[in-house]
Amino acid sequence: MPLAEGPAPTCAEPRKKLSFLDEFLTLWILLAMAAGVGLGHAFPEIADILDSVKVFNVSLPIAVGLLVMMYPPLAKVRYDELGRLRGAKKMLSTSLVLNWAIGPVIMFSVAWLFFPNPEDSAFRNGLILVGLARCIAMVLVWNMLAKGDCEYCAVLVALNSVFQIVMYSVLAYVFITVMTPVMSPSTQSIVVDITIADIAKNVLIFLGMPFAAGVTTWYFLARRKGRAWFDTVFAPRISPLALLGLLFTIVIMFSMQGEKIVDKPLDVVRIALPLLSYFLLMFFVSFGLSYKLGFTYGQAATQSFTAASNNFELAIAVAIATFGIASTEAFTAVIGPLLEVPVLISLVSVSLWIKRRYYGADDLPRKAREASRG
């Protein structure tokens, strides 16, 4: 079902398989972590060197890495699809509820479940920042591999990109600063004192600036060269910048946190478990709700992967800018990409199994088809 009347857009799908860089993303991140730990061990003074020059209250090299990391996914968003929002109110409202109400609450709950102690508040904060960052890049790949609705996915990515600028700082302040004393009054004395202005400033810098650059790039180049040229020529050329920026940031982060990692390697596992729980909960809750509402398989798959995926680049950027590059919050956020590829690839297979088991050849839920016959 098209999202609106008129000709359907030419949806530029990702490649029919993951690119070499994306397929081995987990390996690159592990290598970057190892390189960072080795660098920090060989040059203990690197932290002072990195902090010697700052911009936006963040080390200059890190600020550059974060901005480079955020630009490509925001430049590739199909902003013109926002004009097709009419005619899909039910699906879009469901997506907004999943992404900006259910998702943050689930991550908040999971974070408290796995890290209930006052001394673990930094781990909770990092997880909450991850849960609030909605995916705007790799979800296009997962959606394509799972045979989801490409047109609908493009609209949701554009919508979430805009919503993040407005909602991220507000929700981060509510869940981290307001709700923590409510959940556990005894932790109030050690809660990091951050204001909504602190988070909003960092969101505007590390999301707003690349967002503006991405919109400008997309508008002028796509308009001048054509959307087909933009999607098939320009977008693939800038895509590696996101990975390079991410890996550069990870190397620097782990060069400053090498001692912590060597002393407490199990912290990586402790962070991975709630993230895995969040991925699975969001995916199955989204699929179940979409099935109950009678969405087609393509729409349900797109809803589920959009809700289960996260924009780790944004979470890392805000964690570093708000809490510091050597913070546990930043360390927690950077573990997320380690799990993204293996977990989401596995969920693609689960999604295709759900299609075979619960959907008919017409892409409709079997129960809905049976009810229409009755």
Task: Record the SSE blueprint.
Blueprint: H1 20-23, H2 25-42, H3 46-50, E1 54-55, E2 58-59, H4 60-75, H5 89-114, H6 121-132, H7 139-145, H8 150-183, H9 196-225, H10 227-263, H11 266-292, H12 297-308, H13 312-323, H14 328-358, H15 366-373
Antiparallel strand pairs: 1-2
Helix pairs in contact: 2-10, 2-14, 4-9, 4-10, 4-13, 5-6, 5-8, 5-11, 5-12, 6-8, 6-13, 6-14, 7-8, 8-9, 8-12, 9-10, 9-13, 11-12, 11-14, 13-14
The dominant shape is globular
Sheet bearing the most strands, described? 2 strands, antiparallel
Estimated share of beta-strand residues: under 5%
> How is the largest sheet built, in terms of strand order?
1-2
Derived structural class: mainly alpha
| Succession of helices and strands | HHHEEHHHHHHHHHHHH
Structural domain tally: 1
Q: Please give the number of β-strands.
A: 2
Could you tell me the CATH topology label.
Na+/H+ antiporter like fold
Count the helices. How many?
Answer: 15
Per CATH, which architecture?
A: Up-down Bundle
Straight-line distance between termini: 23 Å
Kindly report the average pLDDT value: 81
* Proportion in helices: over 70%
